[in-house]
Design goal:
Layout (H helix, E strand, L loop, with lengths): L8 H26 E3 H9 L8 E10 L2 E8 L2 H11 L3 E5 L10 E8 L5 E5 L4 E6 L10 E4 L6 H7 L1
Antiparallel strand pairs: 1-4, 2-3, 2-5, 4-8, 5-6, 6-7, 7-8
């Protein structure tokens, strides 16, 4: 008889089942964490723009090959609400795709509330989006996301042209 504990056939099955359950749970949790929304990343972070937190301005810029070619700053609350509604229902999945801000065409929307962190939303026409928080360094603000539902940014384009 070898030194150590000898496991019966059923003990091995139980061990493999437990390890499998742990791995499956990890995959499910990771998949769930990969899904988020603009609401969760931005609106919930700064507060409801119609209630507890007022957005004082939104800066919008278009970049071509890393250069700012057009930009505006919006301070009118009705226009701010229209812009926020463009993003309101966006659903996001974490993505391995990258938004290269030095060599691509993309838009930047910087949301500045009266108090609290500003949030930068960078996105391109391929529906790749990065959201950065000026204060919070949570890992969800370091990921790149892909928009998985309809996203009509024609209002953003129209405001710049």
């Amino acid at each position: 008889m070898p030194v150590g504990v000898i496991m019966s056939k059923w003990s091995w099955y139980i061990f493999i089942a437990i390890v499998s359950l742990i791995i499956i749970t990890g995959v499910v949790v990771d998949t769930r964490n990969a899904r988020t929304s603009f609401q969760e990343l931005v609106v919930d972070e700064i507060g409801d723009p119609h209630g507890s937190q007022v957005i004082s301005s939104i800066y919008i810029a278009e970049f071509l090959d890393g250069e700012n070619v057009k930009s505006i700053t919006v301070t009118d609350i009705q226009t701010i609400n229209k812009i926020m509604n463009v993003f309101a229902e966006i659903k996001l999945n974490r993505s391995d795709k990258e938004l290269s801000i030095s060599s691509s065409n993309y838009y930047k929307v910087m949301i500045q509330p009266d108090n609290g962190p500003s949030l930068d939303v960078n996105f391109n026409k391929d529906k790749i989006m990065e959201i950065q928080n000026s204060i919070n360094i949570h890992k969800k603000y370091t990921w790149t996301y892909e928009v998985v539902n309809d996203f009509d940014y024609s209002l953003i384009e129209a405001m710049l042209h």
